[in-house]
Write a structure and sequence with these properties.
It is built from 16 helices and 16 strands. The chain is an alpha/beta fold and 575 residues long. The strands form three sheets. Strands 4-6-7-8-11-14-12-13 form an eight-stranded mixed beta sheet. Helix 1 runs antiparallel to helix 15. The longest helix is centred in the first third of the chain and has 51 residues. The protein is globular, with a radius of gyration of 31 Å. The two termini are 47 Å apart. The structure holds 2-acetamido-2-deoxy-beta-D-glucopyranose (3 copies). One of its GO terms (biological process) is GPI anchor biosynthetic process.
Length: 575
Amino acid sequence: MAVAAFLRRGLGLLVPLAIASTVYLYLYPFFQGCAFPLPSRDSRAAFEETKKLHWPLAETSDNGTSMEHFAPFRLLALGDPQLEGDTSIPTQVYGVLPHLKKIVKNLTFRTEHNSLRERIRMTLHDTVDFYFEDIPNIFESIRKRIDLFGNDFYLAHIYRTMNWWAKPTHVTVLGDLVGSQWIDDDEFERRGRRFWNRTFRGGERLPDDVAQYPQNQYDISGVLDGSAEQQIWTKRILNVAGNHDIGYAGDLTEERMERFERVFGKANYELRFELPVTDPELNATIVDDDTNPESLRLAPEIRIVVLNDMNLDTPAKSSVLQDATYAFINSVIGNSHGVEFQGGFTIVLTHIPTYKPAGLCVDGPFFDFHTSADGGGVKEQYLLSADASKGFFEGIFGVSANTAAAGNGLGRPGLILNGHDHAGCDTYHFVNHTNGTGPEDRPWQHTLWSDAQAQKLPLQEGLPGRREITVRSMMGDYGGNAGMLSMWFDFEKWEWQYDYADCQLGRQHFWWLTHSVDFSVVLFAVLYVVVVVMEASGVDVDGRLDRVVGRVRAWIVDETRQRGTKTATRENGHK
Ligand SMILES: *[C@@H]1O[C@H](CO)[C@@H](O)[C@H](O)[C@H]1NC(C)=O
Ligand SMILES: *[C@@H]1O[C@H](CO)[C@@H](O)[C@H](O)[C@H]1NC(C)=O
Ligand SMILES: *[C@@H]1O[C@H](CO)[C@@H](O)[C@H](O)[C@H]1NC(C)=O
């Protein structure tokens, strides 16, 4: 057998596969045609412009940037990474070979059993569990450890590649950063380290003094001018608290909240970003108490409200934390510009989606409660209750079924982004002002965004509504999704416009395959070099290998023959 030739042929097969899959994996947004939507809403053009950012020969404008065609606000929205850990590794949960240990104890009479029969019964029991639980659990634990390790890097690949390719200005992770609210503090810290140092490497926790409590409408967190100073916002990650991070209302304690906020950032805050208006004529039309008090035009502003909606519904375990959430919402509402003003836009980032009837999204209305012995709090919920959902639409956005309300009940512009439903969903919630005679005849109605668009509902008079985008999870089982929200300002209408697109890497198996093939190529290449060097220095590699193979073969033949003789002897003896 010619070893060098074998390795060479292997490399010949593996190298093209490795190159093709690696190029695809590392450039997946390119092959998927992903890009932040442009103000033209032309996805083809968006892709072409994004491509230019990465083409070294493309022309750049005088100030060295080529971003002027892009929307000034580009939010990379990632859903439910759910970093798992200890709690999904059986040997960590149950220990290593627990039933074998019990058998040993039983046989060494270190357990309490009344009778010998009982002792034998338990031992047999444990023996079965040893074979059917302990041993499979060992293999499952090894598999799971490898799986978890790879998963961190798979998710990291999405974050890193999307950042590099699509150039977001802001990044959010919409809750369920970790996979379980039941983990102890040490494990929580470990997952926090994996989150920051592995999966979202390069990302930064939002400093507490930047995550403001709503106070002053004129406090600005940042300016959307693309300057170097504002680049800090591309690193900061706006983390949302999810049920696996802090627990549902019935589990949410101050301790869980404290550790979440310490590791990932505050759970309730707002940020305000202003778009500079450089044109002096336009700038002069903006409301100003001294020079232009009559105007209804605000300086263009995007207000981001990050909200913990885990304890909006009742009963909640900690009334202190629930009061804090309600107080926060009230201060968000209290510090909003009047609904009659133009130029503002509110993005709510939260975890649990708002109420909608069953059948619209994968998740429908669902509630489960702890038993009263356990406090009776919310144990699980898929959606917020209809009442809690109104807090968003009627409270934060100020939309009202009552046409006599401020601003005719049309409310202020905004959008909700959330996670929780791993499959993702895109819906529109509205009230019909022409329905009936009063607000009591006008319930909130819910439809898919695609249907709303087909019927042109958002453009119709007397149908105020808001869109809610539930971003599909970035987990491998859901295709490694990333959401891209672009926002730009229409100076004629003096209002914000937006568009949203998804980008998917594909399932985790492809990531594994690519890295396995790459590893094999390296292995083959190293072996090949070793063999060639040995042969060059006069070692007969082929001959040696032949001898080794020959010896192994002889040993196997020998063993088989001996066993055959033994069996034959035994059978003869039994005659
Ligand atoms: C990340 O790793 C560095 C160095 O290994 C360490 O000093 C730092 O504390 C880690 N960060 C977190 C959030 O654990
Ligand atoms: C409008 O112009 C004034 C004076 O130049 C400036 O201070 C202000 O920031 C401008 N407004 C906006 C929204 O850019
Ligand atoms: C709104 O209500 C009016 C009057 O009932 C009805 O004709 C119209 O179809 C409704 N619009 C929608 C979108 O349901």
